[in-house]
Design a protein that fits this description.
The chain is an alpha+beta fold. The protein is built from 4 helices and 8 strands.
């Protein structure tokens, strides 16, 4: 109780604020594509329960790390809204204007981001469902012809990790490095 009163007193004098409840998952170490026009790209994201509780700079998200928080180092991998089934093939076709067999299709999108928007769940913003995909590489920075080859390395649905590829070679940590 004294610690809370002291922190509140310090908050009034020095501008500090009490720590928020800890997140269950914190993603750091790779690009985060939010699909939110006000902040398309960022570097960290925190999830508590089924909901995203923080999206932004690593320092802003780190305040959500507690003793039981699983910290997932993306190691350069791309984190984006959860993709629908076969989305990478559909994104490849939308951006290249060709099927995997090379047949020309009638509709081509100029921006990969537009194709992602058609094949992904809701934007990664505070308060939205924690439905996430981690890709092996950043599909917005590779040749469009390679998009269909990109591998999903992790899927999170409603805040729960439901898939981790064997190639996602890391142990989940409970400390930031």
């Amino acid at each position: 109780m004294r610690a809370v009163v002291l922190c509140l007193a310090l908050a009034h004098v020095h501008g500090c604020s009490p720590r928020p409840p800890p997140a269950d998952l914190v993603f750091v170490g790779g690009p985060v594509y939010t699909q939110d026009e006000s902040l398309l790209w960022t570097e960290a994201l925190a999830v508590r329960g089924e909901t995203i509780v923080s999206v932004g700079a690593r320092a802003d998200v780190e305040v959500f790390v507690g003793e039981s928080t699983q910290i997932i180092d993306l190691d350069g991998r791309l984190l984006l809204p959860r993709l629908k089934d076969d989305a990478l093939v559909a994104i490849h076709e939308a951006v290249t204007g060709r099927t995997l067999r090379g047949t020309t299709i009638s509709r081509k999108l100029e921006r990969i981001e537009d194709a992602i928007g058609e094949h992904a769940s809701s934007a990664l913003v505070v308060g939205s469902p924690a439905d996430l995909t981690v890709l092996q590489e950043n599909i917005l920075k590779i040749a469009p012809a390679r998009i269909a080859e990109a591998k999903v390395e992790m899927s999170v649905v409603d805040g729960r990790v439901v898939y981790v590829a064997l190639t996602f070679d890391q142990r989940f940590s409970t400390t930031l490095e």
